[in-house]
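Fill in residues.
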């Protein structure tokens, strides 16, 4: 019993490894989570939170501690003498230390405008990151379907090997009974060895691509990983390219910048208080160290800024036009790419139709060749030629089907309508 449990414990992990499966949607999700660039999302969010917190602290009282010691060449003196009174002029060396408190009472909503601009800037940065990650989808799509093609070609090669092995057994019987020459079996055996070579080449190529896909998506994959053939989903309502959302957010960012400029022109009212200790104090005629304080309100309003605000807003409007130009350029290039991919899809669909016709003919020809070989009318070499022709036609069909799928998915990625992952 213990031996059975030990055997299960050793074999079970191997079974789990052998059954590893992967889908294209999962790859899209993994690359968006594990790609080094994806780590910036949390950093940008944290940075935005800290910037917003710093901006909001502008509403709190501001405390400043100031101290100074000076020596001056001259001091204020009365130009007249007052009878029976002696007025001592201030010292040329003077000392002062103050604690200043300033509290914003009204600034036209400038702090809130800065906070909203910071939020808009953060959204732009996050969307720029999303655009960069979205661009990885085509790279993942190419690698994934390349591995899938090799995987399906291996299945085709297995069927090819199975058929050639069955034919070798038939030829052996023919050689035994003297119907066929011994060289007929040798030709087929050479073809079987050639198939084994193809397995070796295919397996090494597949493992190379699996490793590259593993690095890209940040998940360890085994040689035995099985890729699921992806389906083409209907577009989700509201799906679109992230670049278009980026252009919209950049425009909104400019709007917030314009509002911030407008707010900076409004009057600002502050309350202030100052307490200090110095020589002299507020009484310049008292030549001794004293404490002092003052409090009040301060209004600041820049009535004329030489049209700086107007010029800055005009500059922002030009930025808007530049973004609109970039958007139009992107949409134009994207439309051209879609036309190109759609044309490729139509071409491949036509090739697949012809592939099916070719395979049907090659299968009929091979059946005839099998009968002729069995009766010793043709050589094994002639049979191998037709046998190879059939499997080349099937391999072409596999290639074209995978190319069709690749372009269909690429079309939806380019169009921004590929179904969003549910992971």
């Amino acid at each position: 019993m213990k031996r059975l449990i030990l055997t299960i414990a050793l074999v079970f992990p191997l079974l789990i490894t052998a059954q590893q499966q992967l889908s294209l949607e999962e790859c899209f999700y993994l690359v968006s989570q594990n790609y080094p660039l994806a780590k910036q999302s949390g950093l940008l969010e944290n940075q935005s939170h800290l910037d917003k917190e710093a901006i909001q602290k502008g509403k709190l009282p501001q405390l400043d501690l100031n101290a100074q010691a000076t020596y001056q060449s001259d001091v204020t003196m009365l130009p007249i003498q007052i009878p029976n009174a002696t007025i001592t002029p201030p010292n040329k060396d003077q000392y002062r230390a103050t604690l200043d408190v300033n509290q914003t009472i009204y600034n036209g909503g400038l702090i809130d405008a800065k906070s909203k601009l910071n939020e808009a800037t953060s959204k732009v940065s996050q969307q720029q990151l999303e655009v960069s990650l979205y661009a990885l989808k085509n790279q993942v799509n190419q690698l994934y379907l390349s591995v899938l093609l090799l995987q399906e070609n291996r299945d085709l090669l297995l069927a090819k090997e199975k058929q050639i092995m069955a034919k070798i057994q038939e030829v052996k019987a023919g050689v035994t009974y003297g119907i066929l020459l011994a060289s007929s079996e040798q030709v087929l055996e050479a073809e079987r060895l050639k198939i084994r070579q193809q397995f070796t080449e295919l397996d090494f190529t597949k493992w190379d691509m699996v490793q590259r896909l593993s690095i890209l998506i940040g998940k360890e994959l085994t040689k035995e990983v099985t890729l699921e053939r992806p389906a083409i989903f209907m577009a989700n309502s509201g799906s679109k390219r992230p670049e278009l959302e980026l252009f919209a957010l950049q425009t909104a960012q400019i709007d917030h910048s314009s509002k911030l400029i407008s707010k900076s022109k409004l009057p600002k009212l502050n309350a202030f208080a100052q307490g200090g200790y110095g020589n002299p104090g507020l009484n310049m005629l008292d030549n001794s160290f004293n404490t002092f304080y003052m409090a009040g309100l301060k209004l600041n309003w820049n009535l004329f800024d030489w049209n700086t605000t107007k010029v800055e807003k005009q500059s922002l409007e030009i930025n808007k036009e530049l973004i609109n130009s970039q958007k139009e350029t992107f949409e134009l290039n994207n439309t051209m790419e879609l036309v190109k991919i759609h044309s490729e899809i139509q071409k491949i669909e036509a090739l697949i139709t012809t592939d099916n016709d070719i395979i049907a003919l090659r299968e009929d020809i091979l059946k005839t060749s099998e009968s002729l070989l069995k009766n010793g009318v043709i050589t094994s070499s002639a049979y191998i030629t037709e046998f190879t022709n059939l499997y080349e036609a099937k391999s072409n069909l596999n290639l074209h089907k995978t190319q069709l799928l690749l372009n269909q998915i690429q079309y939806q990625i380019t169009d921004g309508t590929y179904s969003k992952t549910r992971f």
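The radius of gyration is 41 Å.
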